[in-house]
Amino acid sequence: MKRSEKAHRILAQLEGFYPETPVPLDHTSPFELLVAVLLSAQTTDLRVNLVTPDLFRKANTPAAMARLEVDDILASIKTCGLAPTKAKNIRRLAEMLVEEHGGEVPASLEALEALPGVGHKTASVVMAQSFGVPTFPVDTHIHRLAARWGLSNDTTVEKTEADLKAVFPRETWNKVHLQIIFFGREHCPARYHDLSTCPICAWASSKTRQAQEKRRDASVAKKRRPQSPGRP
After folding, report:
1. Active site residue 26
2. How does the average pLDDT of the chain come out, rounded?
3. 121 counts as catalytic
4. Which of 37, 88, 206, 212 lies most in the core, judged by the most C-beta atoms within 10 Å?
5. Which class would CATH give 1-22+137-226?
6. CATH code assigned to 30-104
7. In this predicted model, what pLDDT tens digit does every residue of 81-97 receive, in sequence order?
């Protein structure tokens, strides 16, 4: 089956699973979304949604955030991974938005990527969800599933993004990237997942891939298994 044919079938299945795709990060403005996505690196969306209400009560605009001390920001986000660095980046990006963009979040991928702590994925999420510009943000779930499904060769995130853009219609990108994330979280985890019983992997992944992952999981489980008393 060609990749484009496979993507068409996957798209139909994902639409059945997730006809609606709410953005997982709570926000009310492009600035709040930008900060929330920045915070989500090495942190769960659930944790981000727990800390942002307190942060946004203190400041929910670039001008207000720029007036906060870094320690004030850190106090709200300290349970997030890499919190000290993120607090500094949030303060500095708020200052840059005020100084260089009139206190607004720019609708430009390049301008967003120039902000501290904002990588390509973060910028792509903001462009897609705040400004409706077709992008295909690739996170760990998407990278993993694209390889499992044979839609990409599992080399780099950049290659995965290009491969997925090539097989999914442009008008679906902003929705399907969320559908894949939801599917990965709920139905297709990274470890101890029998691909042969998965609604999509069962037909989309190769027999070789299924066998490789089964051997890997068995090997990991064996290493973690406690040794019997008396064994060296």
Report:
1. no
2. 95
3. yes
4. 37
5. mainly alpha
6. 1.10.340.30
7. 999 999 999 999 999 99
155 pLDDT band (50/70/90 cuts)? confident
Exposed, middle or buried, 74 (CB in 10 Å: 0-12/13-18/19+)?
A: buried
Structure tokens at 192: 């101890």
Each domain of the chain, given as residue ranges in start order, spans 1-22+137-226, 30-104
Q: Calculate mean pLDDT across residues 126-150.
A: 96
Reference 183, options 154, 153, 145; nearest CA is 145
3-state secondary structure 153-218: CCCCHHHHHHHHHHHCCHHHHHHHHHHHHHHHHHHCCCCCCCHHHCCCHHHHCCHHHHHHHHHHHH
Catalytic residue among 26, 72, 139, 154: 139
Alpha carbon 50 to chain centroid, angstroms: 17
pTM across the whole model: 0.90
